[in-house]
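Backbone shapes recur. Consider a single case.
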Amino acid sequence: MPSSTVFADETVPQRAGSDVSPESRGLSSHADHPAYGRKYPAPAAGESPAFFPEKVARNDAAHLDALEAQSIFLIREAFHHFKNICMPWSMGKDSNVLIWLSRKAFCGHIPYPLLHIDTTYEFPEMLEYRDWAVKYHNLDLIVKINEDARAGRGAYAERGSIGYDTTDPVTVTHELKTVALQQVMAEHKWDALITGIRRDEDPTRAKERYFSPRTKDFEWDYKDQPPEFWNQFTTSCAPGEHVRVQALLDWSERDIWLYIQREGIPIPKMYFARTGKDGVRYRFRSLGCWPISGPVESEADTIDKIIDELAHTKTSERAGRAQDHHERNAMQKLRAKGFM
């Protein structure tokens, strides 16, 4: 398939999205939401949730072609070997590249469902982007919330509701993301997940394999992982276990942005700089739950400026994600228990 593919604008969703407009929440605009009460301002009222980059061809296309071909190969290998696959989707830049690669791998159609683990702490405009993308890409989207944890019922009755106002970020991340994933996987019995993690994001993720097995308890033994010589991958697992297929493992943050620009992949607008109340411009490099996701100071309001910024910055991509820094080796501990 050509490296720069145009997909039809399909508009019929497989599963209906929720109404997340400001009016549905009793707000006059997103500006009234506490997520925008800090440095990064809310979008203008009525603004589209998606940004469509103007396609730009570059001289280093061969590098992106090689990454694209490898990712499509890994996705197709997973689809060939596993009977029941799902693709977690955070709505961020990496998982939107995965949507694009999946459509290229299967001629415009994604033959497996996508999964959004909703912690109930998403930025409102990200939820609007989610509902827009479901229609635009014709996605079969499953949304999962750990309702018992948020309501403080069932197994959580004694400890109470789990949230950032009552619990530390690592515990919230585990309960609202990892445990929610365990719940939905027990229901659907997926034996493989296609994920969008990259080695350059975090030292713990650099230890991953392309096909990374997890036990029935979702545990990851990062000290004892299978070798992958000559593209021989772990393509089977015992009942209750699963394999995580890391199709973007060799991509860098810069590669992701170059590819988004080359292909014209629609993405959320929160990656681009906006002027805050203090007159300083900010943007997000990594998006998560709003209480623990902080923006960075940046003048980058175009992809070209983002790519140039990445060549000079000394700030890590996940510097604004509080759960990563709550305690020593927090990310490694979370991932060992099943976190993405």
